[in-house]
Amino acid sequence: MCPDFVVELRSPTDNLLPLQNKMREYLTNGVSLGWLIDPLKRRLYVYRAGEEVVVLENPTVVSGEPLLPGFELQMEEIWSN
């Protein structure tokens, strides 16, 4: 059993490559949508099944559409911490 949506938040002590590998593993196991949030560089990596990774530079809001209709994450709070 696997969730449809996962979020990983990079901490200051995390290396990016292992987190990216973990996201690819999630997709292999059935995740439809994954967000890897890197507050250190203000980047958000969007992983979708069957698609290339999309990198968003300093987004202010991210939408979970179409998998999560109406769900939006305001990024200002994450970037400010």
Describe it.
The longest helix is centred in the N-terminal third of the chain and has 13 residues, at 16-28. This protein is α+β, with helices and mostly antiparallel strands and 81 residues long. It has one domain (5-80): Alpha-Beta Complex (tt1808, chain A). The protein has helices spanning 16-28, 76-80; strands spanning 5-9, 33-38, 43-48, 54-57, 61-63, 72-74.
Outline of the structure:
The protein is α+β, with helices and mostly antiparallel strands and 81 residues long. It has helices spanning 16-28, 76-80, and strands at 5-9, 33-38, 43-48, 54-57, 61-63, 72-74. The protein has a single domain (5-80), classed as tt1808, chain A, CATH 3.90.1570.10.
β-strand percent reads: 25-35%
Percent of residues in helices: 10-25%
Low-confidence stretches: none
- In CATH terms, the superfamily is tt1808, chain A
- Put simply, the count of helices is 2
CATH class division = Alpha Beta
- What's the CATH topology label? tt1808, chain A
Q: How many β-strand stretches?
A: 6
User: Into how many domains do the coordinates divide?
Assistant: 1
Q: What does the secondary structure layout of this molecule look like, with pairings?
A:
Layout: E1 5-9, H1 16-28, E2 33-38, E3 43-48, E4 54-57, E5 61-63, E6 72-74, H2 76-80
Parallel strand pairs: 1-2
Antiparallel strand pairs: 2-3, 3-4, 5-6
Quick tags:
2 helices; tt1808, chain A; four-stranded mixed β-sheet; alpha+beta; 81 residues; globular
